[in-house]
Amino acid sequence: MRPINLLIIIVAVGVAATVVFYVRRWRLKEQYSLLWLILAVGMVVLAAAPELVEWFAAKLDVYYAPSILFFLGLAFVAVMLFHYSLEISRLSDQNRELAQELGLLRARLEETAAAAPPFKDEPLTEGPAGGAG
Amino acid sequence: MLIPVYNEAEALPGLLEELREQAPSCDVLVINDASTDDSAAVARAAGFPVLDLCLNLGIGGAVQAGFRYALEHGYEIAVQVDGDGQHPPSAIEQIVAPVRAGACEMTIGSRFLDAEHDGDFLRRQGTRLLSWLCTLFTGQRITDATSGFRAYGHQALRYLAAYYPADYPEPEAIVLLRRRGLTIQEVPVRMRPRQGGRSSIKGLQAVYYMAKVSLALLLAVFKQGTARQPV
Q1: Scanning A124, A132, B26, B34, which has its CA 20 to 30 A from the CA of B61?
Q2: pTM here?
């Protein structure tokens, strides 16, 4: 095995370890860790068996076999980015919904407050211990 | 009556005053899209209810919050009026009449139906292009696709409360409604120059605006009527 293959395997293990580290600390969700772990596994497989790249390149009639690696790398990044675009769309929809709901509730609260007898601003007698009141 | 406002403290008092005089039978709701000036305070001081959004959602998100408010409060018809005073309250009756009569589910107050020219040249060309696209995609002649002076019937409200584009929503809403089989009419309206505040679209943003809306119109043609997952 050439040094570069060993280096790639070490980097891949580092990627996997980093992902697991953050998942353990509750800072990375499992669903997002999945793609990164797939990347790490892919790196190990290709580094351990470089002839896979050669074989694949021959099948696709690619003259310069390593360009397959660039293709795979770019494809991975593109998939990742698209995944994030989907997530951002979902999050911004949820965000919008939340802000609207909050506004509607606040408006309803104002209506109710206007209709009800004046609200006495007294501290709660049974608030949580140590609460501000 | 839904009035989306973003930093319109300048124009708002005059508009609200006019509404009180010229449309006394309408219930007014001011939707404050997280303004940084005192638009909300101005509206409250004038005695109108305010729907405060805690995040700036853009005109689409703000208007949609208004649709949802209207549905929650059992209104059958809602009118959308820009907060900058461009839309004369005296024309509200013309806008509402076709919806109330059941002739259509949405009316649009059009600046151009009477060949009335106003606004600067580029803006007019942009509106013409978008109107042309709307005409192309709906098979119905639309002259002022970007007008935000509109009246909505109950079915339109129900649909748009669930599906309304976030930014620059006006042209896309036309295509979406038509694809749902809901009818639209344009009514000629003479608009005024804005009564204060600043336009939200200028410079490079205008280029982005045109590209985004044109694409959104095209994609709206292919959009499913409803999302599989709740949005």
Answers
A1: B26
A2: 0.82
